[in-house]
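thread: overnight batch results

M.L. [08:02]
morning all. the overnight job finished for the chain we discussed friday. pasting input first so we're all looking at the same thing
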Amino acid sequence: MPMQLRPFSISFLVLATAAALSGKLAQAQNSGFNLDVHANSHTTAKDIGLPAYPGATIFKDKDNDGGADLGLALGDFHFQLKVASYTSGDSPDRVLDFYRKPLSRFGEVLECNRGKPIGALVATKSGLTCADQQGGNIHANGSVNSSTDHELRAGTPHLFRIVGIDKTENGQTRFGLVYLELPKDDDKSK
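M.L. [08:03]
and the structure it wrote out:
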């Protein structure tokens, strides 16, 4: 079943934040820190650092405004998630081909299908792989990971972008653009 990018709800954002925070808030207790939290549902391809696909429209339905933007900064801890969902009459291959060059600005482009690499590249020079990062999970639509669809990834294990095909039906391709900044794990003993 493909990853559903469309119903990014408050529960999704809470789950993603909780997974990213795992223990970091406890470290900050009783120490001077600045906390910055933001969330909104109006994210575009430009906000993610990618161009809009020509002719694509923002995918909206009763549960989704087409995007999500959640950020949390707590001292040196930084987590940010931006998602924009679109639909196009073009094929999934055409959408992915369009995004290969823009993604290459962020490093080698890794192609993944169902969490496994396609082609000779299994990990980028920066260490980015098709698997979930830092042993954590990206939760979407009740799924425990993002490894159920066809996607392109570029960046580093802590800051990367994903272009993923969500679903194709009735001649329409739904796809999602994701920017994810994960906190760096400063506990080397794990």
